[in-house]
Design goal:
Elements: H1 2-23, H2 26-42, H3 46-51, E1 53-58, H4 65-76, E2 79-93, E3 97-110, H5 112-123, E4 128-134, E5 142-149
Parallel strand pairs: 1-5
Antiparallel strand pairs: 2-3, 3-4, 4-5
């Protein structure tokens, strides 16, 4: 009896693992990549943030892969505590490309510049558009190709 229970448990866990690795929708994969990206920003893990940016990344006001990291470090580095809440997320995706749309609320404490960044970010009423591209076989291999907000 115990062998059957263990066998069924192994089958169930294996099935879940295969689903998680290979059968999740591109929309769910993008939401997971976006969550990882936001957590890296919150933790000031600049290496992880940089690794998720595409070589041809395009950001607001002409930012690219080389110029966006110093700007992010300047804007977010002054936070002692930082939480980024994603509000009203929506994703449109194909197997290799996707766009997530959401509003972002910044919560945190830090320098006076960080507080000014927080206030400006929270005043934006238009949603952020994050463009994603899948670069590999694994469900976590998504890179950010473009970030856009019409209010900037």
């Amino acid at each position: 009896m115990l062998r059957r229970v263990v066998f069924l448990l192994v089958i169930a866990l294996s099935s879940f693992g295969l689903w998680w690795l290979f059968l999740r929708s591109p929309e769910r994969q993008i939401l997971a990549a976006q969550e990882t990206f936001m957590e890296a920003l919150e933790e000031h893990d600049w290496e992880a943030v940089s690794s998720m940016l595409a070589p041809d990344f395009a950001g607001p006001q002409g930012l690219n892969t080389q110029t966006v990291m110093p700007e992010l470090q300047k804007a977010l580095g002054g936070f002692v505590t930082l939480d980024i809440e994603v509000l009203e997320p929506a994703v449109q995706a194909s197997p290799k490309l996707g766009v997530s749309t959401q509003r972002i609320k910044v919560i945190g404490l830090g320098s006076s510049f960080a507080i000014a960044v927080r206030e400006r970010a929270n005043q934006l009423q238009t949603p952020w558009l994050l463009h994603w591209r899948k670069i590999g076989f694994w469900p976590w291999n998504w890179e950010l190709t473009q970030v856009h907000n019409d209010s900037l």
